[in-house]
Amino acid sequence: MADVWIAGVGMTRIGRRPERLQDLMAEAALGALAAAGLERPDAIVVATMNPEEFVGDGNFASNVASHMGFAEVPAVRVETATSSGAAALYAGFAEVAAGLARTVLVVGGERMTHLPTPRVSEIIGRSIDPYERSYGATMPALAGLVTRALMARGGLGAREMAQVAVKNHANGARNPLAHFQQAVSAEDVLASRMVADPLRLLHCCPISDGAAAVVLTTERARVRVAGIGQGADTLALRHREELTSFRATRAAAHAAFAMAGFGPERVDFAEIHDAFAPFELISLEDTGLLPPGKAGRATLDGETALDGRLPVNPSGGLKARGHPLAATGLAQIVECVWQLTGRAEGRQLDGRVALTHSIGGLATSNWVTLLEAV
Amino acid sequence: MTPTVVPGAGEVVSFTTLYSPPEGFRSPLHIALVELEGGARFVCHGAETRGLKIGAAVAVEAVDEVYYFSHLGALDRARLFWRRAGRAGDRVTAIARSLAKRAWKGPSRGAS
Lengths: 374, 112
What we know:
The complex is a heterodimer of chains A (374) and B (112).
Chain A: E1 5-11, H1 21-36, E2 43-47, H2 51-54, H3 60-67, E3 75-78, H4 84-97, E4 103-110, H5 117-125, H6 130-133, H7 139-152, H8 158-172, H9 186-191, E5 194-196, E6 199-200, E7 210-217, E8 223-232, H10 247-260, E9 269-271, H11 277-286, H12 295-300, H13 317-320, H14 328-340, E10 353-358, E11 365-373
Parallel strand pairs in A: 2-3, 2-4, 9-10
Antiparallel strand pairs in A: 1-7, 1-8, 4-7, 5-6, 8-11, 10-11
Helix pairs in contact in A: 4-14, 8-11
Chain B: E1 9-18, E2 29-36, E3 41-46, E4 57-63, E5 66-71, H1 75-85, H2 89-105
Parallel strand pairs in B: 3-5
Antiparallel strand pairs in B: 1-2, 1-4, 2-3, 4-5
């Protein structure tokens, strides 16, 4: 398997955007191509979770390719619900590693804010098991079940969960591309309205528009994809033996670290899928970055803050940077590449190895990617 | 599809109250994940989750093929349960027997 390098990255500002999805994806893609110094990729991988419902367009790989003036470049679309961006990176990685293409443009995006929130929830909720959905279960509802079980396990309370949101908003305030660029206090979090008890509004990521893109290449560059892995689990939450740890993350991390040939101790910072604040805590333990049961304490102690031992979500995470579904897995890569190459002004970290973690559905298709600066 | 006979009592694995439920559901919407004797897990609706705890025993019944949980500790909830269960004559006996057996044997886990 050939080494796969990241030649360039780009992304749009995340938030409420009036542009069409095609325009957002083109903006991110052209930014990544410019950063890579590449005029035209050999192949394109496109990630959108549900453009048919969100914006009314289908055949979206060809749609985006044509829109960017690359109508003749082979393009495919990849989808694994909310982790589609990470899945697209994997597909692009595989094409380059297998020698099928020398350069691949991977671009992901979503546009949702033009729709009313109940409609957006319903569309995202279609990734839930149909039986559980028939009981009114939405993503926040299932996340509420997971969170309640997590709190009952002990060692994790309202303060720890609130601190995740406080930290990620503080980071987002330093990121000019973030959806939310203002700080919140723990009191704000605990006073925000209840969404799915015990989850409150400020524990949950926003609905956002935006796009992100990565150019992968066989040519040696400054950042290498050291490892990438997928993990899977049952569609239905009720078919799982445990609620408070995601098997899909553990399997993805295991595969990624096995490919990289090193362990979690080498990771300097991470971008974690904090669609709901407690998911950051679960995922820090599932990826092996923190020992089981320690994530809450570490967060309260500031270990995962920008100036901590293991900064987590320097971009602001899904919570503050925002969560334009299929853009997110790639936006995490963009942030890590900027951090690894000294381009994260205002929130610059000092590190050589980064981990990204993306959750698809209610943790049915999760991804872990390891990036290494050389 | 194989019909499944559902025992009348289960244990709460987790629960939540949804304040922005999807269209067609009342708000707030109480949802619990309940494990029945034998290990099968069901998503259930309930009238409320006040006082509910993970690991608590609840009654589970089906009304029009929708499963509901209700707290075994409170009298009003028990009444609600009986009223609903009354619609399925045969099941009442089965549920009563199951509950009696459970009460006789005591909780399967130590109090926590």
